[in-house]
UniProtKB/TrEMBL annotation:
Gene3D superfamilies: B-lactam Antibiotic, Isopenicillin N Synthase, Chain. InterPro entries: DIOX_N, IPNS-like_FE2OG_OXY, IPNS-like_sf, Iron_ascorbate_oxido_reductase, Oxoglu/Fe-dep_dioxygenase_dom. The keyword Oxidoreductase applies. This is Fe2OG dioxygenase domain-containing protein. It holds the Pfam family DIOX_N. Residues 117-223 form the Fe2OG dioxygenase domain. GO terms for molecular function: metal ion binding; oxidoreductase activity. The keyword Iron applies. The lineage of its organism: Eukaryota, Fungi, Fungi incertae sedis, Mucoromycota, Mucoromycotina. Keywords: Iron, Metal-binding, Oxidoreductase. Belongs to the iron/ascorbate-dependent oxidoreductase family. The gene is ABSGL_13641.1 scaffold 14267. It comes from Absidia glauca (Pin mould).
Amino acid sequence: MAPRTIPIIDFSQDPNVVAEQVLAACSTIGFFYMVNHGLPQDQVDRAFALSKEYFDLTAEEKRKHLIQEHNHGYSELYSETLDPEHQRQGDHKEGFNFRNFVNGKPFCPLPDLFAQNEDFLQSFSRYPRGGEASYQDTVRAGAHSDYGSITLLFQKDVPGLEVQANREEWIAAPLIDGSILVNVGDQMQEWSGGLFKSTLHRVTFLPEHNHVDRYSMPFFVHPEDATPLVPIPSSLVPPSSIQKDENGQVLTAGGHLLRRLQATYTYEK
C-alpha cells in the first residue's frame, strides 16, 4: 500500500541507509524528495531565471522553435495532452524540451537566449495563471506517468503537483526548499518487473495561486533508444510479461517513447 506522504531521503546518510530508503520509496509510492544532494542552489536559481526570461518572450519569438516529432522545441498552451483519455482540451501549460547534447552541442538549433546558456539546459515548463474565463478546468497538466526511467524535478514558489496514492486519493507534493523531487518512470517499472512504481501524477490549480504562473524544470532520464524494456535479472524482480511492439518484437525504450509522444503532442507541419 502506498504511503500518504512522499518520503524525504537525506543523501548525506550512509549509502546503505539511502539505498534501503530509495528501494522502499520506489516500490511503494514511486516518488521521493532528495535533500543534501550536493547541487548548489545558485545554479538552480539561475536556471529558473533563464526559464522565466524565455517564457516572457513574445509568442511570435517562441513559435520560431515549435516542438516537432524529435521532441525538441517549444510547446504552446494546449498543444500537449498528457491525459488524452479524460481531458476535454490540451494542458494549460507551455514548455521547452531539449534533446540530449552530443559532444557538448545541442541536437537542434536553439533560441538565442538558450544558445548563450547551453550549460544550463534541460527542460522548462510554465503553467500560466488560470484566471482567464475560457479555462474553467482545475487541472493544468493531466494525469500521466513519465515516459523514461527516472525524472528529477525542480519546483519553485508555486505548488500544485499531486501524486495518485491509490485509485481514490491524490496527495500533494509540497515545495521543500533545496530538494529535488525524484520519481520512477515507465521504463524503470518495466526493468523492475513492476517492483518500482511509475505512479500517475498531475498538476492542479490551487485557488490561492490561480493568478500566479508556476514554473518547473524536469530532467527526464532516458536510456539509448535501442535499449530493450525487459526485466533485469535479480532476485528482487518478480516474473512479469514483456511488452512487444506492433511487429511482435520486444519493445525498446525508443519505441515506448515514440508511442507516448504521439499520444501527447499536437505537432504543426
